[in-house]
Design goal:
Blueprint lengths: L1 H6 L3 H8 L2 E5 L4 E6 L2 E6 H15 L5 E10 H15 L17 H10 L1 H8 L2 E2 L4 E7 L11 H11 L5 H16 L4 H4 L12
Antiparallel strand pairs: 1-2, 2-3, 4-6, 5-6
Length: about 200
Protein backbone atom coordinates (compact mmCIF):
# COMPACT_ATOMS: atom_id res chain seq x y z
CA UNK A 1 0.00 0.00 0.00
CA UNK A 2 0.99 3.65 -0.23
CA UNK A 3 1.23 3.78 3.56
CA UNK A 4 3.67 0.85 3.53
CA UNK A 5 5.82 2.57 0.92
CA UNK A 6 5.91 5.83 2.85
CA UNK A 7 6.67 4.12 6.16
CA UNK A 8 9.64 2.28 4.64
CA UNK A 9 11.12 5.26 2.81
CA UNK A 10 14.79 6.10 3.41
CA UNK A 11 15.15 9.78 4.30
CA UNK A 12 18.78 10.04 3.15
CA UNK A 13 18.16 8.40 -0.19
CA UNK A 14 15.02 10.45 -0.70
CA UNK A 15 16.99 13.65 -0.10
CA UNK A 16 19.65 12.63 -2.64
CA UNK A 17 17.18 11.66 -5.37
CA UNK A 18 14.92 14.67 -4.87
CA UNK A 19 17.69 17.25 -5.25
CA UNK A 20 20.40 15.62 -7.35
CA UNK A 21 21.73 16.77 -10.71
CA UNK A 22 22.07 14.44 -13.68
CA UNK A 23 25.70 14.32 -14.86
CA UNK A 24 25.55 11.72 -17.63
CA UNK A 25 25.57 8.07 -18.57
CA UNK A 26 28.57 6.00 -17.51
CA UNK A 27 27.39 3.14 -19.75
CA UNK A 28 24.01 1.87 -21.03
CA UNK A 29 22.97 0.79 -17.51
CA UNK A 30 24.60 3.21 -15.04
CA UNK A 31 24.29 6.98 -14.68
CA UNK A 32 26.19 9.54 -12.65
CA UNK A 33 24.21 11.77 -10.31
CA UNK A 34 25.63 14.66 -8.29
CA UNK A 35 24.30 15.63 -4.88
CA UNK A 36 26.11 18.51 -3.21
CA UNK A 37 29.82 17.55 -3.43
CA UNK A 38 29.32 13.82 -4.07
CA UNK A 39 28.92 11.77 -7.21
CA UNK A 40 26.72 8.68 -7.18
CA UNK A 41 26.82 5.81 -9.68
CA UNK A 42 23.26 4.55 -10.03
CA UNK A 43 21.73 1.59 -11.83
CA UNK A 44 18.97 3.12 -13.95
CA UNK A 45 17.08 -0.13 -14.27
CA UNK A 46 16.92 -0.68 -10.50
CA UNK A 47 15.83 2.90 -9.83
CA UNK A 48 13.20 2.85 -12.58
CA UNK A 49 11.84 -0.52 -11.51
CA UNK A 50 11.32 0.69 -7.95
CA UNK A 51 9.73 3.92 -9.16
CA UNK A 52 7.35 2.00 -11.40
CA UNK A 53 6.49 -0.48 -8.64
CA UNK A 54 5.56 2.40 -6.36
CA UNK A 55 3.53 4.02 -9.16
CA UNK A 56 1.39 0.88 -9.36
CA UNK A 57 0.26 1.48 -5.78
CA UNK A 58 -0.04 5.24 -6.23
CA UNK A 59 -2.44 4.69 -9.15
CA UNK A 60 -4.03 1.50 -7.81
CA UNK A 61 -7.50 1.04 -9.30
CA UNK A 62 -7.22 4.45 -10.97
CA UNK A 63 -4.95 3.96 -14.00
CA UNK A 64 -5.21 5.70 -17.31
CA UNK A 65 -5.77 3.13 -20.03
CA UNK A 66 -3.39 2.23 -22.87
CA UNK A 67 -5.65 0.62 -25.45
CA UNK A 68 -4.25 -1.70 -28.11
CA UNK A 69 -5.52 -1.05 -31.62
CA UNK A 70 -6.27 -4.74 -31.99
CA UNK A 71 -6.65 -7.15 -29.05
CA UNK A 72 -3.78 -9.63 -28.99
CA UNK A 73 -4.39 -13.40 -28.57
CA UNK A 74 -3.21 -14.36 -25.11
CA UNK A 75 -2.67 -18.05 -25.82
CA UNK A 76 -0.29 -17.39 -28.73
CA UNK A 77 1.83 -15.15 -26.53
CA UNK A 78 1.90 -17.65 -23.66
CA UNK A 79 2.88 -20.50 -25.96
CA UNK A 80 5.70 -18.40 -27.38
CA UNK A 81 6.96 -17.31 -23.96
CA UNK A 82 6.63 -20.81 -22.49
CA UNK A 83 8.70 -22.23 -25.33
CA UNK A 84 11.41 -19.62 -24.80
CA UNK A 85 11.53 -20.24 -21.05
CA UNK A 86 11.88 -23.99 -21.59
CA UNK A 87 14.66 -23.53 -24.14
CA UNK A 88 16.64 -20.74 -22.50
CA UNK A 89 16.12 -21.08 -18.77
CA UNK A 90 15.88 -24.81 -18.06
CA UNK A 91 18.64 -24.69 -15.43
CA UNK A 92 16.66 -22.19 -13.37
CA UNK A 93 14.16 -24.95 -12.58
CA UNK A 94 16.67 -27.41 -11.06
CA UNK A 95 16.55 -27.41 -7.26
CA UNK A 96 19.37 -28.18 -4.81
CA UNK A 97 18.60 -31.89 -4.93
CA UNK A 98 18.95 -31.98 -8.70
CA UNK A 99 15.20 -32.41 -9.23
CA UNK A 100 13.64 -30.56 -12.12
CA UNK A 101 10.51 -28.52 -11.49
CA UNK A 102 9.09 -27.98 -14.97
CA UNK A 103 8.19 -24.40 -15.93
CA UNK A 104 4.55 -23.48 -16.19
CA UNK A 105 2.80 -24.57 -19.34
CA UNK A 106 0.87 -22.18 -21.53
CA UNK A 107 -2.34 -23.94 -20.45
CA UNK A 108 -1.60 -23.41 -16.75
CA UNK A 109 -0.76 -19.74 -17.35
CA UNK A 110 -3.90 -19.31 -19.40
CA UNK A 111 -6.09 -20.81 -16.70
CA UNK A 112 -4.61 -18.59 -13.97
CA UNK A 113 -4.93 -15.37 -15.96
CA UNK A 114 -8.45 -16.05 -17.19
CA UNK A 115 -9.55 -16.91 -13.66
CA UNK A 116 -8.20 -13.59 -12.36
CA UNK A 117 -8.99 -11.38 -15.35
CA UNK A 118 -11.79 -9.41 -13.65
CA UNK A 119 -9.53 -8.50 -10.74
CA UNK A 120 -6.68 -7.60 -13.10
CA UNK A 121 -8.99 -5.27 -15.03
CA UNK A 122 -10.58 -3.65 -11.98
CA UNK A 123 -7.44 -2.92 -9.98
CA UNK A 124 -4.63 -2.84 -12.56
CA UNK A 125 -6.30 -1.99 -15.89
CA UNK A 126 -4.91 -5.18 -17.43
CA UNK A 127 -7.82 -5.99 -19.70
CA UNK A 128 -8.28 -9.51 -21.05
CA UNK A 129 -11.46 -10.14 -23.01
CA UNK A 130 -13.76 -13.11 -22.49
CA UNK A 131 -12.31 -14.72 -25.62
CA UNK A 132 -8.77 -14.43 -24.17
CA UNK A 133 -7.38 -11.40 -25.98
CA UNK A 134 -5.36 -8.61 -24.38
CA UNK A 135 -7.18 -5.35 -25.02
CA UNK A 136 -5.53 -2.78 -22.76
CA UNK A 137 -2.68 -2.10 -20.34
CA UNK A 138 -2.25 0.41 -17.52
CA UNK A 139 -0.37 3.69 -17.81
CA UNK A 140 2.13 3.76 -14.94
CA UNK A 141 3.86 7.03 -15.87
CA UNK A 142 2.36 9.65 -18.15
CA UNK A 143 3.96 9.59 -21.58
CA UNK A 144 5.68 6.22 -21.08
CA UNK A 145 4.61 2.92 -22.62
CA UNK A 146 6.27 -0.48 -22.26
CA UNK A 147 8.18 -2.28 -24.99
CA UNK A 148 5.56 -4.62 -26.42
CA UNK A 149 8.24 -7.02 -27.63
CA UNK A 150 8.26 -8.23 -24.01
CA UNK A 151 4.48 -8.61 -23.71
CA UNK A 152 4.52 -12.42 -24.01
CA UNK A 153 7.08 -12.79 -21.21
CA UNK A 154 5.18 -10.32 -19.07
CA UNK A 155 2.02 -12.39 -19.16
CA UNK A 156 3.93 -15.63 -18.69
CA UNK A 157 5.71 -14.43 -15.54
CA UNK A 158 2.57 -12.65 -14.33
CA UNK A 159 0.84 -16.03 -14.30
CA UNK A 160 3.77 -18.13 -13.09
CA UNK A 161 5.45 -15.97 -10.44
CA UNK A 162 2.56 -14.23 -8.67
CA UNK A 163 1.11 -15.85 -5.54
CA UNK A 164 -2.58 -15.76 -6.44
CA UNK A 165 -3.68 -17.28 -3.14
CA UNK A 166 -2.73 -14.48 -0.70
CA UNK A 167 -4.10 -11.01 -1.44
CA UNK A 168 -1.19 -8.91 -0.17
CA UNK A 169 1.44 -11.07 -1.86
CA UNK A 170 -0.69 -11.15 -5.00
CA UNK A 171 -0.90 -7.36 -5.30
CA UNK A 172 2.82 -6.94 -4.59
CA UNK A 173 3.66 -9.65 -7.11
CA UNK A 174 1.57 -8.02 -9.83
CA UNK A 175 3.17 -4.65 -9.07
CA UNK A 176 6.64 -6.17 -9.39
CA UNK A 177 5.86 -7.85 -12.72
CA UNK A 178 4.38 -4.62 -14.10
CA UNK A 179 7.47 -2.68 -13.01
CA UNK A 180 9.81 -5.18 -14.67
CA UNK A 181 7.79 -5.03 -17.86
CA UNK A 182 7.62 -1.23 -18.04
CA UNK A 183 11.21 -0.48 -17.05
CA UNK A 184 13.25 1.01 -19.93
CA UNK A 185 15.85 -1.40 -21.29
CA UNK A 186 19.23 -0.50 -22.77
CA UNK A 187 19.48 -1.68 -26.40
CA UNK A 188 22.05 -4.39 -25.63
CA UNK A 189 19.73 -6.03 -23.12
CA UNK A 190 16.92 -6.32 -25.63
CA UNK A 191 18.69 -8.55 -28.12
CA UNK A 192 18.23 -11.99 -26.48
CA UNK A 193 14.46 -11.56 -26.37
CA UNK A 194 13.82 -10.14 -29.82
CA UNK A 195 12.60 -13.62 -30.74
CA UNK A 196 9.39 -12.59 -29.01
CA UNK A 197 8.49 -9.75 -31.32
CA UNK A 198 4.88 -10.02 -32.40
CA UNK A 199 2.82 -7.65 -34.56
CA UNK A 200 1.25 -5.92 -31.55
CA UNK A 201 0.03 -2.41 -32.47
CA UNK A 202 -1.09 0.34 -30.10
Amino acid sequence: TVQDIESKSHAGLEAVLSSCAFVGFADPVFVLLQHQTRLYLCNVRVLCEELLRQQVFMRFSNFDRIALQEPVPLRAMLEQASRLVREKHAQAYVDEGGRVAPPWTADACMEALMRMREMLAEYFCIEITADARVAALPCLVDGHAPDLAFLPLFFYFLAAEVNWQLENECFHGIARQLARFYVPRPPLLEEPLRLLVLPIPF
